[in-house]
Amino acid sequence: MAFIENKKIEKENYSEFALDAGEYVECAFRSCDFSSSSLAGIKFDSCTFVECNLSLVKLSGASFQDVTFNGCKMFGLHFEECNPFGLSFTFNNCQLNHSSFYQLKMKKQVFTKCNLEEVDFTESNLMEANFDECMLMGTRFENTNLTKADFRTAQHYSIDPTLNRIKKAKFSLNGIPGLLTKFDVVIERNV
Q1: Which of 31, 111, 114, 168 is least buried, going by the fewest C-beta atoms within 10 A?
Q2: How far apart are CA 63 and CA 43, in angstroms?
Q3: How far separated are the first and last CA of the chain, in Å rounded?
Q4: What is d(CA 154, CA 172) in angstroms, rounded to the nearest whole number?
Q5: 40 pLDDT exceeds 90?
Q6: What pTM, to 2 d.p., does this model score?
Q7: What is the number of alpha carbons within 13 Å of residue 88 lying toward its C-beta?
Q8: Are strands 89-92 and 110-112 parallel, antiparallel or unpaired?
Q9: Using an 8 Å Cβ cutoff, are 31 and 51 in contact?
Q10: CA angle at residue 140 from 138 to 145, to 5 degrees?
């Protein structure tokens, strides 16, 4: 397997020709198309992906350590198939709709200005996670550890407090209806 370090890769189409298997350290991928390809078994350490399309990529055994995604399209990814050892990533302005983080340990995970619609966080550990300005329509939280998570600027979430750990989680007043959906109550402003 190849060892690639400090390389800038731009505008490559890996949906037609697969990325070489190996270990990528401090590499930068910009405007690359990985859609429907496989990153199985490939290791990424301290890499950045900027404006890349990673939709429907197969992640079986892929390793992401200290990896940042900026402005990437990442529909339908199964992050639970990644190698869990040292798993750490940051998402900024990404489209992660229909992806899954089932049972992952992502303490202090940061999502900034991301679309996380219909994402599955079932049984994940999102303790102290931050969902800064994220859209969470239809996102699934079930048996999820959301202790000290920050939802103050997140929108359109529905979290059942009886099925999740939310001790000391932060919410805005505008987000309170998202915590009461299960109870089918009507919340109105004082007149």
Answers
A1: 168
A2: 4
A3: 68
A4: 9
A5: yes
A6: 0.92
A7: 7
A8: parallel
A9: yes
A10: 140
Q: Which residue has the tokens 């048996």?
A: 143
Written as six digits, the tokens of 183 are 């109870």
Residues making up the chain, counted from first to last: 191
Encode 137-164: b = buried (16+ Cβ within 10 Å), e = exposed: eebbbeebbbbbbbbebbeebbbbeeeb
* Cα gap 161→71, rounded to integer Å: 31
Q: Give per-residue pLDDT as tens, 132-165.
A: 999 999 999 999 999 999 999 999 999 999 999 9
> Cβ of 188: how many Cβ atoms within 10 Å?
5
The beta-strand segments (E) located in the chain are 2-5, 8-10, 22-25, 28-30, 43-45, 48-50, 63-65, 67-70, 89-92, 110-112, 130-132
Is 37 within 8 Å of 13 (Cβ atoms)?
no
C-alpha–C-alpha distance, residues 127 and 149, integer Å: 6
| Host H or E run for residue 111 | strand 110-112
| Residue type at 31 in one-letter notation | S
Within 10 angstroms of residue 176's Cβ, the number of other Cβ atoms is: 10
In one-letter notation, the amino acid at residue 22 is G
